[in-house]
Amino acid sequence: MAETRARNGTQIPDPTLLRMCRYLRILERTDDEKISSAEIAEAAGVNAAQVRKDLSFFGEFGQPGVGYRTKDLLDSLKRMMGLDEELEVVVVGAGALGSALINYPGFENRGFRIVAVFDNNPAKVGHRLRGYEIIAFDRLPEVIADHDVSLAIIAVPRVAAQEVVSALIEAGVKGILNFAPINLKVPDDVVVRSVDLTLQLETLAYYLRD
Hints:
Layout: E1 3-5, E2 11-13, H1 14-29, E3 34-35, H2 37-44, H3 48-56, E4 68-69, H4 70-80, E5 87-92, H5 96-103, H6 106-109, E6 112-119, E7 128-129, E8 132-136, H7 140-147, E9 151-154, H8 158-171, E10 175-178, E11 191-194, H9 197-208
Parallel strand pairs: 5-6, 5-9, 6-8, 9-10, 10-11
Antiparallel strand pairs: 1-2, 3-4, 7-8
């Protein structure tokens, strides 16, 4: 199981981090000044003990029988997860999938601001996509340095993915969201999260079989 270190050095399993992101959304949606672990659990589809265990990775919150102050818990979790300020992101690949990702408003709504879009197709370079000028891939190092970017999304063909990732890492990127169907080789200090859309459909097909 993949794990990530908390800021205090504790190993946090990836499933816990995913649940924490769900908890953040629940806290953002509630209008109540206080919220209990049972209420968070019901909205997240887990049990209250799981919520308390997950939160314990980040410290001690709330009081037994009283619950949590919603805003305090929300602010604390955002800060501890590095989501308390806007994060700049670059996108590599301006094809159909890349275009769809760039047009997705959810990134900006969650504090992830796309600052540059790259492609190696001369026919696309210089054109605009949702207000972004498509930049030649060979300019990636200078743009990343100018914006001090540490996050990237790649939506390129499988055969190009490793080369793209290597260039991103050399430029200083530490977190990569990968949409290419390939296992990427990266150093230990770089985190990759891969999304294989076809693989997800294939798993769904299993449940639809006769």
